[in-house]
């Protein structure tokens, strides 16, 4: 207590009094960015333990000592006076002196106690301050420190403090802190308690915070008590709390749901930014007197201002329409709780608002998606079926029902194998089992379907993984391959028919050459053997058989669509009228023939002989379909179609047609045979009853003419063949309905001129050359195109007409014609061939005028054609 002994007695009492005063106010730290903290005062005990002997239970207070000393002095003085004044009392002088000495000693002790008590108390208080964490200093206004506890030395890294300047350097880490500390000193020196919070940066980019308070000591105007406390930990905690508070406020303000609270009058006391944004207002405007019911489209009548409904004010959730000042509306779900205050009068709500607009939009989008998916599912052009784990049907679409031919009884719950081809049910079940077990996640196989008709179907199987509470399933997609299979068969059949047609054309070409020679030489013989001659009958028999063979060849060419057509503009009514007698003889007396002619029937441009052949074949086919009695009806009419009509693989374009229907009352054609009825060599008749070429020839003639033929039939109810021929429109020159011409039998077929005949077949060339020479023509012969060019080198000026075969080895007819046109552009040409006219015309360039004579031809036909060409302009 050596240091304390130097402090004046008045100062020590002031120090004691200073620690019993109230704390000074703290300077606002708004500019420092921190909230001020309350100062911490360290109170001192009001009573000190002094003069107590060890083990003594009582306490010797100051008052007791004064009383004892006073009593001793008074007693001692009384004895001494009595001894001096009253000697007769026989009081020993020594005793009196002893008593007086004791009194003097007591007085001395009393005076010493009076001098040492403040010092003892100051020492006790210094000891207490040394044990605190806060630094305590007592300084003069000039800054001299007269007292500092141990914490102050720690503040200065153990250095003793003599002046506040040292403290100022230790606390003020920057200019702002220095200014604040100096302002604090000025305020205290003007006798005003003051407190500030100072910050000092640390080398590790941290901060140390100090709470500094100062107040003048009462009764000691020249002394100031300074208290310095480290509040870094408190500041860090407060910073963390402020940060969490900011996060909480931000979360509440920008939560995906709205929050609000209204009082008993319906006024907003809180609203977050999310709700304010939905309403189109600022959150601060809501809490400035706005009422809840002002934002409800239909506020409840006769309900408290804070209620959402007229009934119970507390419901788990209420769906209501809210409206902002700008008129924007949205559907909201509000969960609201009403809270009553402790006074029983005040009320406020805790309300959570959820905007239902996105949910409703999502729900509508989901519903639209479901409807759209259901439409896709139901209207898909392929069959789709869902199966459970046992391969039983659970869901399917309309295409699947149509595919399997489902009747009124729904196939729900049926094993899929029962609806597929019976021959492969075991294999199908095994394949589906493999997919269900996951061994083969995807599978494709072809099956048959037991529906209304036989179908070839390709099935695609996929495994659908189930959810947490859902088992895996199978999805099957059925693609009807029947038409594709039929097209493949038709394509293969087409290739086969093309090959057969090429073969038929080649055979017909060779036969036509033979028949031309046979018919031609018969005509030459008939020139010498008249009807009265014995050989006339034999020659005619040969010619008739040759003509029959020629008809068979024409059928082969018609089948392969390589016959030569000579189309003319005809009226079908006239053709049928001429053909009616022949048809009645062909179908027999037991079958009735009826004809119904359409009014104002249009004209057609066809080969009359080929058209007659078509009608005859259809009539004969109808006769064979009826056993005994029956009826054949032929109808004609005009027909106009405004859209493309598809039947099987044929597509008839829109346009105007003349229609011919041939209907019988026969047994009809089975459904499975309708698609093959026009195939060559296909026949439903018994073996030996037909060649199977009749209907295929009909189909070939009609299609080559540019028309279409369709068949409709029901088993047991007869058959109808419908022919559509394009309606012919006459040109401006007024094309006649039937070509005019003189009768070849009465014409003069002789002529004059030089003809170059080119033919690689010797019999045909010899017959043709003799026939033309007999008619007065000069004929130059050539076996090939090369020989013909050699002849023309010398005789080009003499040749009036070139007759050439189309198909010849090395140089064919079209090539020969092209070479001749180079030197003789005006040379007249007749081509003879067993093929169609179109086949050779496609091979001639330049569009030259070339005449055509199909094989087989007779002598009269050859002579007539040659005369017409030579005498043409």
Compact description:
41% of the residues lie in helices and 22% in strands. It is an alpha+beta fold.
If you had to describe this structure to a student in words, what would you say it looks like?
The chain is 41% helix and 22% strand. The protein contains 24 helices and 29 strands. The protein has a five-stranded antiparallel beta sheet with strand order 2-1-5-4-3, sandwiched between helices. The protein has a five-stranded antiparallel beta sheet with strand order 7-6-10-9-8. The model is unreliable at 1-66, 79-91, 687-692 and 732-744 (pLDDT under 50).
**Structural class assignment:** alpha+beta
Strand content: 15-25%
Rg calc: 66 Å
Assembly state of the chains shown: single chain
Question: How many distinct helices?
Answer: 24
| Largest β-sheet summary | 5 strands, antiparallel
Strand order of the largest sheet: 2-1-5-4-3
Distance between the termini: 161 Å
Rounded mean pLDDT score: 76
Question: Can you lay out the helices and strands and say which pair or pack?
Answer:
Layout: H1 2-5, H2 9-18, H3 62-85, H4 93-130, E1 135-139, E2 145-148, H5 150-155, H6 164-171, H7 175-189, E3 194-201, E4 207-217, E5 220-230, H8 232-254, E6 258-262, E7 268-271, H9 273-279, H10 283-286, E8 318-323, E9 329-340, E10 347-355, H11 357-379, E11 383-387, E12 393-396, H12 398-404, H13 425-436, E13 442-450, E14 454-464, E15 473-480, H14 482-528, H15 536-559, E16 568-570, H16 572-587, E17 591-596, E18 604-606, H17 608-625, E19 630-641, E20 645-647, E21 650-652, E22 655-664, H18 671-674, H19 694-705, E23 708-714, E24 718-726, E25 754-758, H20 762-774, E26 778-782, H21 785-795, E27 801-805, H22 813-823, E28 828-833, H23 837-841, E29 851-854, H24 859-870
Parallel strand pairs: 17-19, 25-26, 25-27, 27-28, 28-29
Antiparallel strand pairs: 1-2, 1-5, 3-4, 4-5, 6-7, 6-10, 8-9, 9-10, 11-12, 11-15, 13-14, 14-15, 16-18, 19-22, 20-21, 22-24, 23-24
């Amino acid at each position: 207590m050596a240091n304390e002994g130097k402090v004046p007695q008045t100062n020590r009492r002031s120090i004691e009094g200073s620690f019993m005063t109230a704390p000074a106010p703290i300077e606002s730290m708004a500019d420092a960015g921190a909230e001020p903290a309350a100062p911490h005062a360290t109170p001192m005990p009001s009573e000190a333990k002094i003069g107590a002997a060890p083990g003594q239970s009582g306490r010797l207070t100051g008052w007791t000592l004064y009383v004892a000393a006073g009593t001793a002095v008074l007693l001692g003085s009384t004895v001494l006076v009595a001894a001096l004044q009253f000697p007769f009392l026989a009081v020993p002088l020594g005793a009196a002196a002893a008593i007086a000495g004791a009194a003097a000693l007591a007085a001395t002790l009393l005076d010493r106690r009076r001098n040492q008590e403040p010092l003892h108390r100051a020492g006790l208080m210094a000891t207490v301050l040394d044990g605190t964490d806060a630094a305590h200093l007592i300084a003069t206004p000039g800054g001299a420190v007269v007292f500092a506890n141990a914490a102050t030395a720690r503040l200065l890294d153990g250095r003793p403090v003599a002046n506040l300047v040292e403290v100022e350097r230790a606390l003020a880490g920057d200019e702002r802190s220095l200014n604040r500390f100096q302002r604090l000193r000025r305020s205290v020196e003007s006798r005003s308690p003051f407190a500030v919070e100072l910050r000092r940066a640390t080398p590790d980019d941290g901060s140390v915070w100090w709470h500094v308070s100062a107040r003048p000591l009462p009764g000691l105007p020249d002394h100031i008590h300074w208290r310095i406390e480290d509040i870094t930990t408190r500041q860090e905690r407060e910073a963390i709390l402020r940060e969490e508070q900011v996060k909480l406020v931000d979360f509440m303000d920008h939560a995906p749901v709205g929050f609000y609270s209204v009082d008993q009058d319906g006024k907003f006391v809180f609203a977050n930014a999310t709700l304010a944004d939905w309403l189109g207002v600022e959150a601060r405007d809501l809490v400035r007197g706005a009422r809840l019911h002002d934002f409800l489209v239909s506020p409840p009548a006769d309900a408290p201002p804070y209620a959402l409904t007229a009934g119970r004010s507390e419901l788990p959730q209420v769906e209501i329409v809210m409206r902002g000042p700008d008129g924007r509306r949205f559907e909201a779900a509000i969960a609201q709780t009403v809270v009553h205050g402790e006074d029983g009068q005040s009320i406020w709500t805790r309300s959570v608002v959820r905007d239902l607009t996105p949910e409703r939009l999502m729900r509508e989008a989901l519903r639209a998606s479901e409807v759209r998916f259901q439409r896709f599912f139901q209207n898909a052009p392929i069959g789709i079926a869902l199966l459970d784990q046992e391969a039983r049907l659970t869901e399917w679409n309309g295409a699947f029902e149509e595919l399997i031919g489902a009747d009124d009884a729904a196939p729900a719950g049926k094993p899929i194998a029962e609806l597929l081809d019976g021959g492969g049910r075991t294999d199908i079940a095994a394949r589906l089992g493999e997919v269900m077990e996951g061994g083969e996640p995807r599978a494709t196989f072809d099956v048959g379907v037991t529906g209304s008709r036989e179908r070839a179907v390709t099935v695609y199987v996929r495994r659908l993984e189930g959810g947490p509470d859902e088992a895996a399933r199978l999805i099957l997609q059925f693609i009807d391959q029947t038409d594709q299979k039929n097209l493949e068969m038709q394509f293969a059949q087409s290739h086969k028919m093309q090959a057969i047609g090429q073969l038929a054309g080649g055979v017909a070409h060779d036969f036509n050459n033979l028949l031309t020679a046979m018919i031609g030489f018969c005509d030459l013989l008939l020139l010498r053997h008249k009807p009265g001659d014995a050989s006339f009958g034999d020659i005619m028999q040969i010619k008739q058989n040759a003509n029959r063979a020629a008809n068979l060849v024409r059928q082969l060419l018609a089948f392969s669509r390589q016959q030569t057509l000579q189309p003319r503009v005809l009226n079908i009514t006239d053709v049928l009228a001429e053909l009616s007698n022949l048809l009645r003889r062909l179908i027999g007396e037991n079958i009735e023939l009826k004809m119904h002619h359409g009014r104002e029937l249009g004209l057609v441009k066809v080969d009359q002989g080929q058209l007659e052949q078509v009608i005859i074949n259809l009539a004969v086919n109808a006769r064979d379909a009826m056993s005994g009695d029956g009826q054949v009806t032929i109808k004609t009419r005009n027909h106009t179609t405004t859209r493309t009509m598809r039947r099987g693989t044929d597509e008839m374009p829109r346009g105007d047609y003349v229609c011919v229907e041939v209907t019988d009352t026969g047994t009809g054609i089975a459904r499975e045979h309708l698609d093959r009825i026009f195939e060559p060599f296909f026949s439903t008749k018994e073996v030996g009853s037909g060649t199977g070429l009749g209907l295929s020839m009909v189909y070939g003639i009609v299609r080559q003419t540019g028309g279409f033929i369709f068949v409709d039939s029901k088993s047991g109810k007869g058959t109808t063949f419908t022919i559509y021929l394009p309606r012919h429109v006459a040109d401006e020159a007024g094309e006649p309905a039937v070509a005019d011409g003189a009768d070849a039998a009465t014409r003069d077929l002789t002529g004059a001129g030089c003809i170059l005949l080119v033919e690689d077949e010797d019999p045909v060339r010899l017959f043709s050359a003799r026939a033309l020479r007999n008619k007065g023509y000069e004929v130059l012969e050539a076996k090939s195109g090369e020989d013909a060019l050699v002849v023309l080198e010398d005789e080009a000026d003499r040749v009036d007409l070139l007759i050439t075969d189309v198909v010849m080895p090395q140089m064919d007819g079209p090539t020969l014609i092209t070479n001749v046109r180079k030197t003789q552009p005006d040379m007249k040409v007749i081509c003879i061939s067993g093929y169609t006219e179109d086949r050779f015309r496609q091979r001639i360039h330049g569009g030259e005028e070339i005449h055509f004579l199909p094989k087989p031809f007779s002598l009269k036909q050859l002579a007539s054609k040659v005369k017409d060409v030579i005498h043409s302009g």
